[in-house]
């Protein structure tokens, strides 16, 4: 019998007609992610206009002030470097993308599984949570040299670093979501003979989805940063190694081209999670 069962036994829930406060009311991340939707020609013109002002102003200032390319390249030079350097960069792009995707997928799976398991056993949750917080507050990139010393300079140490960066963030947010459970709904489900798994699948998990999406987004950001940083620390492959290489040569046009590719991964993750957030039917 878990903590929620005891609370239900000790208190008879009152089923009122007023809308109850759920996780989606506390933190409606869908309102933030909905900004990816384009509504009308005015919004399109506005987005393009801001981009033109920023990039055009950047180009104009660099050219008028004769700022050296090794200090600040123009946007046009960055685009040219991206096109010219792609044959040398694309392999490292897919290496970093593969490391990030593998570590992120494993981290999400382990984080969600641990969150679902620990919230069913409050005593075990109290024991494990301090260590999860320790992982969150520890800069994982500092452990990469140790991983490489033990496991070599291949992709495995980088994947482990991404797992340790993303998994705890997913878990801690998922636990928060699973705790925000609507007790009257659980009591009603139990009165109809619903099993623990059915209650989790139909009530607890949908209610926790907003916080899970938050964990996926934050975990993805942490994982991507760790993946690139691990490439910078550990060798001659990945986008991080290209950042170190081009900065050492003061080729800032190519440096910013690599930054642009890294940003593209993060934006793609944000768009995917925004799409999922818009498609998921939150628990009412």
Question: Please, how many helices?
Answer: 12
Note the beta-strand portion.
under 5%
Order of helices and strands: HHHHHHHHHHHH
Remind me, CATH topology? Answer: MetI-like fold
What general form does the structure show? flat
CATH superfamily: MetI-like
Task: Characterize the main sheet.
Answer: none
Radius of gyration: 23 Å
Helix content: over 70%
Structural class: mainly alpha
- Uncertain regions spanning at least 5 consecutive residues: 7-30
Features:
284 residues; 12 helices; 0% strand; single chain; flat; mainly alpha
Characterization of this structure:
This protein is 77% helix and 0% strand. With 284 residues, it is mainly alpha-helical. The chain has a single domain (23-279), classed as MetI-like (MetI-like fold, Orthogonal Bundle). The two termini are 26 Å apart.
Blueprint of the fold:
Layout: H1 3-10, H2 23-26, H3 29-33, H4 40-64, H5 75-118, H6 122-137, H7 144-151, H8 155-179, H9 183-191, H10 196-233, H11 239-248, H12 252-279
């Amino acid at each position: 019998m878990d903590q929620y069962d005891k609370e239900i036994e000790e208190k008879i829930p009152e089923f009122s007609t007023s809308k109850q406060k759920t996780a989606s009311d506390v933190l409606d991340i869908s309102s933030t992610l909905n900004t990816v939707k384009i509504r009308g020609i005015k919004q399109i013109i506005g987005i393009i206009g801001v981009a033109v002002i920023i990039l055009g102003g950047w180009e104009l200032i660099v050219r008028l002030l004769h700022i050296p390319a090794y200090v600040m390249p123009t946007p046009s030079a960055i685009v040219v470097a991206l096109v010219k350097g792609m044959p040398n960069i694309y392999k490292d792009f897919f290496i970093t993308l593969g490391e990030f995707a593998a570590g992120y997928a494993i981290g999400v799976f382990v984080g969600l599984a641990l969150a679902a398991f620990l919230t069913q056993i409050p005593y075990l949750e109290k024991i494990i949570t301090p260590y999860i917080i320790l992982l969150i507050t520890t800069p994982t990139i500092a452990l990469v040299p140790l991983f490489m010393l033990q496991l070599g300079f291949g992709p495995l140490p980088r994947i482990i670093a991404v797992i340790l960066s993303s998994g705890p963030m997913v878990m801690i947010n998922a636990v928060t979501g699973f705790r925000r459970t609507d007790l009257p709904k659980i009591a009603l489900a139990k009165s109809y003979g619903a099993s623990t798994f059915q209650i989790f699948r139909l009530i607890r998990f949908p209610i926790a989805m907003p916080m899970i999406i938050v964990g996926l987004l934050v975990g993805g950001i942490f994982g991507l940063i760790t993946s690139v940083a691990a490439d910078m620390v550990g060798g001659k492959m990945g986008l991080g190694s290209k950042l170190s290489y081009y900065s050492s040569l003061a080729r800032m046009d190519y440096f910013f081209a690599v930054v642009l590719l890294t940003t593209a991964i993060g934006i793609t993750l944000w768009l995917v999670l925004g799409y999922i957030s818009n498609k998921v039917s939150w628990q009412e």
